[in-house]
Each structure stands twice: as structure tokens, then as C-alpha cells.
Amino acid sequence: MPKNLVIVESPAKAKTIGRYLGSDYEVVASVGHVRDLPSKTMAVDIQNDFKPEYEIMPGKKTVIQNLKKLAKNCEVVYLATDPDREGEAISWHIMESISTKAVAKRVIFHEITESGVKEAFNNPTSVNMDLVNAQQARRVLDRVVGYELSPLLWKKFTSGYKLGLSAGRVQSVALKLIVEREKAINDFTPEEYWIISVELIKDEGKKKILFNARLTGSKRYSGEDAKLIEQDLPLCDFRVDSVSNKTSKVKPQAPFTTSTLQQEASRRLSGFSVSRTMRIAQQLYEGIALGSGAETGLITYMRTDSTVMSATATTEINEFIRSHYGEQYLGTGSRRRGKKSAVAAQEAHEAIRPTSINRTPEEVARYLTREQIALYTLIWRRALASRMADTLNKVTTVHISAEKTGTIVYRLSSSGSEPEFDGYMRIYNVGNNKSEESVDDEDSSDEQEDFQKIPKLIKGEELVLNKVNNDQKFTRPAPRYSQASFVRTLEESGIGRPSTYASIMATLEGRNYCSLENGRYIAEPLGIAIVDQLDPYFPNIMDVEFTAKMETNLDEIARGNKKWVKVLEEFYNPYRELFLIAESSMPKVTVQKETGESCPECERPLAEKIGRNGKFIACTGFPDCRYSKPYQISTGVSCPKCQGLLVQRKGRRGGRVFYGCSSYPSCDFSLRQKPIPNPCPSCESVLVINNRHSVSCSSCDYSADIEEFQTNGSGTEVAV
């Protein structure tokens, strides 16, 4: 019997670590949390210093019994859970649950490699109760707010959405951001403006070179002014006033944090939601079986706010750059600074990086799934690029005057850029290269110079006008949030933690407070109504700055600078007063999203409702009329068996998505993969999507690249 028991969270991690430690160690997994607040009661004694009443989670009694049995015969119990607040809390809950006499030691490692694991076991610590208390404070705080606010909504909303309603300290203020953006878009009134530019000719005899210049006065002109200027410019003589050349440096970005990884994966990797990114990153961290069959952690811990890499990793990356690209590609370590997060880094983690830069994407590609290699490549390139030299561009700026009878009437400018040295962009310039700073993807091209190749010009040189470009534009509101821009906003606002963003988004979508269409969040009527109800009565709960301050307080608890009970007291007492007012004064509201259809039985409007099994369509005349029908997502593809519609369905076991006929049970045709409208060119049967790259026939052996077909995206939500 081994003298040492090691407890980790996941079976995959247990397998990898066990191989590193050898036979003297028994490595087992708790499979996540083992103890939590019960779901059916608040389980927080507010009058007794907010004492939480924990219980063993359902399904974890056997786990605890096994851990007790193993610990009984061990001298040391090593707690090797994740290196963050959540992991610290899990370690504490485990020790509280097993009540062992064995010595408890905490081991912390940020990469699951042999050297990283062994170093951690050579330098054990104890459970950090400051981190535990910070996690407890967050859990109790969220329980108290959610347990009181959600029932309040159930009382005040008299619609078919009642069963799906919830509110929370972080969830509700996050929803407010989406709702406010939606209202701003709906209230926005476009304003017309005009942009004026000219196309000029440099005459080199047989060769005439065209380039563009823009007026340097107002960037936006009224229609009347634009028309007058358009008529006036052809009467002018154009002359070069000055030419300047300078080298522009573009610094590389820092290695990934949790937030920047979520954002960049969403932008660069098609179909990578925040939750998908974190799931795949977890797999890469816990270990992948490579050539020898042994699992190896490929990246460092993926929940971090730090952009720092260890000295060992930095040295390894520097040597890789020298040997593969040359000394000229090695940078100084100076990197672009992103917008400062509203919350300081919680723990002393490293940035997300490969555990070894020498383990290139090409080397490991055959052992990884398509999505794993996509994310690993992104992390690998970002870490490598962060240590590379700046990208250098030669920027030419030309100032031009437009004169009439020797008097300058207009001034214009033109800018051009040519690459001098690719630097880090040799590695990190694939796909959409927008940075975290441009996360909202606003189309601001109207306000920017087009970088072009400028011909060689000298001061005093005369130019010829070729044409005037007078472009009509309209102002536009800020775009709806994408997943990337929403993550960025949450981080900058100090709402939640990067590790919680996926669950926040899932809750908002799952509660039908918002929907994701074409990659953008749209506030649903229910979400708007929730915010309108809560905002007047709970100004603190719904205030971004207040929520950010609470996150700061939680950080201070983690650092040992504040007591968690005191923080909760300061929050709860004024909150409770507001709650009692809301309970008695908040009006009742009915929210119904009508479908535009009439009930076939009584002709009253049909509306969306939510029951225990999700959305459905029902008559607004309930309970007088009980007509209802399923709410389904149509694929737009006809059933080949009965010519009905193929719709998205979910299996009874596990909720697995499949596609079946809307006429079920009279027609039982179904497919596991999503169909597309295009028929098979070989047999005219239904084509289905295999993956992001290919389609195949559901009946014959035909297959093809997906780009050859125009698919209907994610389908259209309709009641059928």
C-alpha cells in the first residue's frame, strides 16, 4: 500500500500525474467538487456570520468513502487540485469531508509535465485559507442574492416564462450590458454625412500612377457642402507641400491570459465559443497521449490573468527563435499593452503557453483532434511571437494643397505603408489579425486612411486630378456584442472572472434572456423586461461599478487584506432593505413574445412559452384555450420520405441533437448530422455536414469540400 495519497480533480490528470510519481503514490480523482450548498434551501445562516451549511454533493458519497478508505492507510495526503481559488476550495472541502489523521500537504503546479509536477511535490505548502475564504464569499454571496431575487421574479412575472426565470449578482448586471446595447441600437437615429476624397495622377511620361488623397478639414461633410466642394475641386491646381517618411513599429502582443485566449479563439477559429475554447484548453492542459502513448500536458494552466512567462520558458523560446529564424527575429521582450483589466491578477500564475516551445504544432498534429490542434497552434504561435522582434513598416505621408489663382483653398493628405521587416508577424499574422483592442469589430473604415503604395513624390511637384469621390455615408450605432467583445467588456468592467464567462453566457442564453444570431447577442423581450424590473429597485446590484468593486473586495479577501464575513455584511444589509421594498412595491408584468400566428382553435395570438422541457408555442388565451405545439428549429430541408420539414430535435437520453421529420411520429426519418438544402449531385438524396470542411451524402458515398456548397448556417427558428 502506497504511503502517499494524491488527490486531483480529473481522472485524466490523475493518470498523467501517477505516471510521473511512481508506485509510492496513489493518485485518485475527486471528479471536481465534492461538497457544496444544497439546492433546495438557502443553506446560509445569515444571522450567524453567514455560516454556510455544506453537504456532500449528490453522487459524491462513494467518492468520499473511497478517499476516506485510502487516506486511512496513508501517511501524507497531497492535495493537487487546480492552482486557483476554486481548486483551493476543493482541496479544503476534501479535507473537511474525509477527516483523516494523515498529514495534509498542498502541491501547486501550473503545467502537467514531469519536471513541473516533481518540482511541486518537492516544495509542498498548506491550503491557503485566504483563497478558500474568497471562494466561499463568492459562493455565499451569489447564493443569497440568487435565492432571494429569483423567487421575486417568479412572483412578479405572470407569463409562460415563469419556470425559467432567475436573477443573480453577476448574471443580471451582465444582462444589463446586452439590454442597454440593444436599446441604444433601437433608439439610434442615423445621420447622413459625406466623405470627400480625390484620385490624383503622378505623370511620369509614358507611365501614369494613380493614388488617393483625402481632405484634411472636416472628416464629415453635409450633403450641400460636399456638392459644392465636388464642383470646386476640378477648378484647382494640386501641388505637393511636403513628403515625410518614417518607420512604424508594431510590437507583438503578450502571451494569452484566459480572457484574451477566449477572445482570440472566438475571432480566429471558426465556431469556437468561449465554453468550447475552455473545454479544449482543459484537454491540452491535462495531457494528450503522444507517440509513446504517455499523456503529456501541452499547455500551462488555462485560468490565469498573468502575461508573465517563467525564465526557463523565456530562455527556451529565445533559443528557438535564434535557431529557426535568426538573431534578427529575437525581440527585446517589449510588448503591446492591451487595455488594463478592471481587476488585478488574482494569483501568481504564468501566462498560457506551451509547456515546451520545441513541441511544435507540426510535431503533435497527428496526435490531436482538429479542434485541439487549432487551439494549440494559436497558443503556440502567440507565445512564440511575444518574444519576437517588432514588425517594421515604412510609412509615407504626403501633404497636398489645392490652389486657385495661387491661393490655397483645400488641404489634402495621403498615407501609404510598405513592409520593411515582418518580425513577429512572420509567425502571428494568419487569418483575422484584429487585436483585443479592436474587439468590437466596428466598421470604422470611413474614418481611416486607406494605406496604399505612394509613388515617389517631391516637394513642389504638380499633380493632376483624375476624379473626385463623393461618398454618402450614415452614422451607425455601436454593434451588438459578439462573444469576443462581450468577454472583453466583462473583463474591462470587472464583472465576474474569466473562468466564469462561459457559464454567464450559457445562463443568459439558456434562460432566453438573449439569443446569439450571426455571432451577435440580441436582447430578447424577456431579458429586457427583467432588466427593466430589477434596475429601479436594485441600483447597486445592476450597477457595473458596484459589481466591479465587489470583485475587488473578493480579491482583497484572497490576499488576506479583508475578512470575508465583513465584506458580506457590508453588502447584505443595504441589499436586504432594497429587497423588502421591491417585494412589496414591484409591479407585476406579463411578457409574451408573439409568433405572428393565430391559434387554429380560437384565433387568438400564439406566443412562445417555456416549460419544464424548454420552449413551446401556446395560445395566449390559456387557460380557456389549451392549444400548444412544439417550438422547433427548421433546417429548411425537405424530408426525403414524406416531404415534410427536417427539424432539430434532442434525444431523451443525454439531450443529444439530431434531425428528424416534423411529421413524427407518422414519419420516422432522422439524421445524426445536420442536413443542408443542396441535394446530392450523385443521387439527389440529402447532404449532411461532416465537419467545418466537408459534406457527404446520407445515402451514397459522395463527399465534397463544404465550400462548394452554400449552407443555411445555423437554421431558422420557426414553429412547425
Please tell me about this protein's structure.
The chain has 720 residues and is α+β, with helices and mostly antiparallel strands. The chain has 5 domains: 4-127, Rossmann fold; 145-188 and 482-585, Orthogonal Bundle (Topoisomerase I, domain 2); 192-251 and 392-474, Topoisomerase I, domain 3 (Distorted Sandwich); 258-387, Topoisomerase I, domain 4; 594-718, no CATH class. It has 17 helices and 31 strands. The strands form 9 sheets. Strands 9-10-15-14-11-16 form a 6-stranded antiparallel beta barrel. Strands 26-25-24-23-31 form a 5-stranded antiparallel beta sheet, with no helix packed on it. Strands 2-1-7-8 form a 4-stranded parallel beta sheet, with helices on both faces. Strand 19 (593-598) and strand 20 form a beta hairpin. Helix 9 (274-286) crosses helix 12. The longest helix has 28 residues, at 129-156. The N and C termini lie far apart (62 Å). Residues 340-347, 430-439, 441-445 and 711-720 have low confidence and may be disordered.
Secondary structure layout plus pairing:
Blueprint: E1 4-8, H1 11-21, E2 25-29, E3 35-36, E4 44-45, E5 51-52, E6 55-56, H2 61-72, E7 76-79, H3 85-98, E8 103-106, H4 114-122, H5 129-156, H6 171-187, E9 192-204, E10 207-215, H7 223-232, E11 237-250, H8 258-268, H9 274-286, E12 288-289, E13 295-296, H10 311-325, H11 361-364, H12 370-385, E14 391-404, E15 407-421, E16 462-474, H13 483-493, H14 501-510, E17 514-517, E18 520-523, H15 525-537, H16 544-558, H17 564-585, E19 593-598, E20 605-611, E21 614-619, E22 628-630, E23 632-638, E24 645-650, E25 657-661, E26 670-671, E27 675-679, E28 686-689, E29 694-697, E30 703-705, E31 716-718
Helix pairs in contact: 3-5, 5-16, 5-17, 6-15, 8-13, 9-12
